[in-house]
Design a protein that fits this description.
Number of helices: 4
Mean pLDDT: 86
Largest sheet: none
Strand content: under 5%
Distance between the termini: 31 Å
Order of helices and strands: HHHH
Helix content: 55-70%
Structural class: mainly alpha
């Protein structure tokens, strides 16, 4: 399920991406972290970026948050 959600992340509109990221964060499966990082890097949408930073920090450790510094 986590892999399927992560795959949908790149195809979704920004509002759906934010929901998917939050869902992936609740699941807490590390397999989703690269997809969340990719969404953070590629999106200019503030809602998506905020959801991604929160998810990465809360679920996968602050080491992933370095991606939001650009």
């Amino acid at each position: 399920v986590t892999k399927a959600l992560a795959e949908q992340l790149a195809k979704a509109d920004p509002a759906s991406q934010a929901v998917l990221i939050s869902t992936l964060a609740v699941r807490g499966d590390t397999i989703a972290a690269p997809a969340v990082v990719k969404a953070l890097e590629s999106s200019s949408d503030k809602t998506v970026r905020t959801a991604a930073v929160k998810a990465l920090d809360r679920c996968w450790g602050s080491g992933h948050v370095r991606y939001c510094q650009s």
